[in-house]
Amino acid sequence: MKSKTGLKKEKQEQTVFQKFFSHFSFFVALIVFLIGNFFGSILLIPAFLLTTKIYLDFFLLLFGFIFGLLFELIIINFEDQRHHTIIAGIVVPLFVFFNIYYITNLSNNISTFLFNSEGSHNPLFSSMAYLVTFIMPYVFHKVCAITFLVPVLITMLGGYYVQINF
User: Fold this and answer.
1) Contacts of 92 (CB under 8 A, 6+ apart)
2) So where are the chain's domains?
3) Tell me: the pLDDT tens digits for 19-53?
4) C-alpha distances in angstroms, 93 versus 15, 98, 130, 131?
5) What pTM value is reported for the model?
């Protein structure tokens, strides 16, 4: 394993192609994630139409948390590039908020059209609930040090943990 100074030195010695590929791979991962989130939210429309409020909230919270974990994996991979983390930390939550807001409005309109009933779901509440659970894994990662979490999780799963000090 290399020390942080070794990683910084390696980072400075990247070629133009390596820097371009790093930026390109980040934006491709981000775009694929946003498209997947959009299509996944379309799958929530039947839940908006057919379930009660408590089940819908459960689906929203579960869906938001799962996509938040996927987003956290993307952020962790590009954490050494601060500008990527800032871009993703602003753009993705805004997209997610407006996406769920739009899907909630759409499902309310479909409900009005198909069932002649007013849509009962509040788009602002649905979007905020989804957004909070979406950013929870990232916040949890930043608040709780990963050095604390890894040994605890490995111990809970029955594995062994060896700490390496440099």
Assistant:
1) 30, 33, 34, 71
2) 22-156
3) 888 888 888 988 999 999 999 999 989 888 888 88
4) 32, 9, 10, 7
5) 0.73
pLDDT value for 119: 65
The pair of three-digit structure tokens given for residue 38, joined into one six-digit string: 């959009």
pLDDT tens digit string along 84-105?
778 888 889 999 999 999 999 9
Among the listed residues 7, 166, 3, the one whose alpha carbon sits nearest the alpha carbon of residue 81: 7
Buried b / exposed e across 45-71, counting CB within 10 Å, b at 16+? eebbbeeeeeebbebbbebbbebbeeb
From CA 112, how far away is CA 121, in angstroms rounded? 12
Give the span between the Cα atoms of 106 and 19, in whole angstroms: 41
Q: Which of 25, 36, 91 is nearest to 69 (CA)?
A: 36
Is 119:107 a contact under the CB 8 Å cutoff? yes
Quote the CA–CA distance of 129 and 104 in Å, as a whole number: 12
